[in-house]
Amino acid sequence: MVTARIWIMDGHNMIFAIPRLQRLQVSDRRDEARRGLEDILRRFAVRRSERVLVIYDGIDLPSNP
pTM for the whole thing? Predict the structure, then answer.
């Protein structure tokens, strides 16, 4: 039996760990920071043939699709 791995990533923590994305986040360009992180993680998932789930928690979000 093969178990599929799903990477569950804390989006805000990752954004603040990547200087380029952190600068976007703190300059009120949050959507760009999230899209940038999602692009990075999408490439990671494709390269490794694995699934990635990004979670953005917090009260400042209008929605979390």
Answer: 0.82
